[in-house]
Amino acid sequence: MARVVITGGAGFLGSHLCKAFLDRDDTVVCVDNLVTGDRANIAPFAAHPGFRFLEHDISEPFSIAEPVDAVLNFASPASPPDYLALPIETLRVGSLGTTHALEIARTHGARFLTASTSEVYGDPLVHPQPESYWGHVNPVGPRSVYDEAKRFSEALTMAYHRTYGVDTRLVRIFNTYGPQMRAGDGRVVSNFIVQALQGQPITIYGDGSQTRSFCYVEDEVRGFLALLDSDGIHDPVNIGNPNEFTILELAKVVLEVVNSASELVYEPLPEDDPTQRKPDITRARELLGWEPVVQLREGVERTAAFFARQINL
Ligand code: UDP
């Protein structure tokens, strides 16, 4: 049995992680300031004897009274509309927040895993993206608040490993979707499903030819646990589904699954929107024996069922 601290534990990925640890009888301290997280995501665990919620902004220092075996650092706005609306908060949580989370791991002698992102590759010139690719990031564009915060958090994590010997892990997360996303999150899968369910127009940014590779949240979380439980993997590991789709292809799948007649409308492409993204998951396959199993149509079906329940509430 392990005692884990999950920053951002009330968010989309964080709340799935809370559940995964509680399901294997670990204890969880969930730390979240609820800026983009949602109390409803952790409500199912509130009465669980192994669960504690600490409402706190990790950009400010904090301590954990109980023993800690692992820290999972998942606190950050992660949807482009969120981090563009919260630019300073995003930079603070990636830098100061990660420092404070690393300090918890260092002082408790705990393992540390931090959530990095495919955004460290920027608008990639190498395709698909292996972990060895250093990226193509605009350091002063609007997305830089997220990209550079995450790049800094990777550098800081490696420095804590090299300087203090903290047992660190870096996971680069590619587009992930599933239940517990907010209906108003702003990311493409939730937008399209909610629009299709409500019979609203599907908003295609640009001409819809840009690509993403979408991983269902259950696969993603299984990858996080495999990385956390592995030994000696301090270099970054891509965890994502390598099946690549254009945004127009995604819209078609969503319309079919939801059986919706929503029309497509075209809106301007956000600044610095990556034109292509697809993980090279050779490292995860070889070192962790991990690969995703839920494919897009099935994942969209499960996610649409979740949003259908949300909207009817
Ligand atoms: N996108 C879109 N319509 C939407 C939301 C997003 O066409 O309603 C596009 C967006 O421009 C990007 C892709 O879908 O090319 C993925 O966007 P998302 O915000 O989900 O994540 P990103 O990969 O950009 O961080």
UniProtKB/TrEMBL annotation:
UniProt KW keywords: Decarboxylase, Glycoprotein, Golgi apparatus, Lyase, Membrane, NAD, Signal-anchor, Transmembrane, Transmembrane helix
Pfam families per UniProt: Epimerase
Cofactor(s) this protein requires: NAD(+)
Primary location class: Golgi
GO cellular component: Golgi cisterna membrane; Golgi membrane
Membrane topology recorded in Swiss-Prot or TrEMBL: Single-pass type II membrane protein
GO BP annotations listed: D-xylose metabolic process; UDP-D-xylose biosynthetic process
PANTHER family from the UniProt entry: UDP-GLUCURONIC ACID DECARBOXYLASE 1, UDP-GLUCURONIC ACID DECARBOXYLASE-RELATED
Protein name (database record): Unannotated protein
